[in-house]
Amino acid sequence: MAAGATARPVAAATGERGATVWLTGLPSAGKTTLARAAAERLHATGRRAEVLDGDEIRRFLSQGLGFSRADRHTNVQRIGFVAELLARNGVTALVPVIAPYADSRDAVRGRHEANGTQYLEVHVATPVEVCSARDVKGLYAKQAAGELTGLTGVDDPYEVPKRPELRIRTQGRSVADTAAELHSFLSERGLA
Ligand SMILES: Nc1ncnc2c1ncn2[C@@H]1O[C@H](COP(=O)(O)OP(=O)(O)OP(=O)(O)O)[C@@H](O)[C@H]1O
Ligand SMILES: [Mg+2]
């Protein structure tokens, strides 16, 4: 860089657009599966992508937070803050996090808009009966056995997104099929 030149954000230098792609939905809906599949496909074509997974974030960024409404909100705002930083620097931040409350999701969207950063909400729309049959982490079984309370979609609220940029149905479909749908969506938005 020439003396006196101003450092520019990487995104501007490479011309690569970033975005936050928030995958919201019930436990076992398929959020992590789809986010990882999308990241893999983006990496394969040399795109920069990161997955900010709820479980991992709770171990580090949000350690100590619980599952009350207030703590869930704080968790979502923290993740949204980091996602926006990545996105504004040309990274596609894939966020497979339940984010059950519409006002929490809208606050994240609002901060992206205020910064001119693209924000895309993807509702992984899997019915609770299907999620509960999948029960990847055994949470539905634990709730049914009375070993756990406050499970989103069962005995804790999940506010279904009214106007997501994309709603993916996974019931009766293969992972490859739904992952391809997400990839096409990202292509249409100039992200893949
Ligand atoms: N079409 C599909 N798309 C995505 N996942 C699917 C599909 N069909 C079946 N599955 C399966 O559903 C399960 C979804 O689990 P996953 O961990 O992705 O859920 P999650 O939404 O991240 O849940 P949690 O909120 O608990 O982290 C996986 O075992 C996946 O293989
Ligand atoms: Mg997950």
Note the main sheet. Answer: 5 strands, parallel
Low-pLDDT segments, ≥5 res: 1-8
Bound molecules: adenosine-5'-triphosphate, magnesium ion
Name given to the CATH homologous superfamily: P-loop containing nucleotide triphosphate hydrolases
Strand content: 5-15%
Order of helices and strands: HEHEHHEHEHHEH
Query: Class, according to the CATH hierarchy?
Result: Alpha Beta
CATH topology: Rossmann fold
- Oligomerization: single chain
Task: Kindly provide the radius of gyration, computed on alpha-carbon positions and rounded to a whole number of angstroms.
Answer: 17 Å
How many extended strands? 5
Task: Characterise the protein shown here.
The protein is 44% helix and 12% strand. The protein is built from eight helices and five strands. It is α/β, with parallel strands linked by helices. The longest helix is centred in the middle third of the chain and has 20 residues, at 69-88. Strands 2-3-1-4-5 form a five-stranded parallel beta sheet. Residues 1-8 have low confidence and may be disordered. It has one domain (17-187): 3-Layer(aba) Sandwich (Rossmann fold). Magnesium ion binds next to helix 2. The site of magnesium ion (MG) has 5 residues, from helix 2. It comes from Streptomyces pactum. Keywords: ATP-binding, Kinase, Nucleotide-binding, Phosphoprotein, Transferase. Residues 17-168 form the APS kinase domain. It is an enzyme of class 2 (transferase). Pathway: Sulfur metabolism; hydrogen sulfide biosynthesis; sulfite from sulfate: step 2/3.
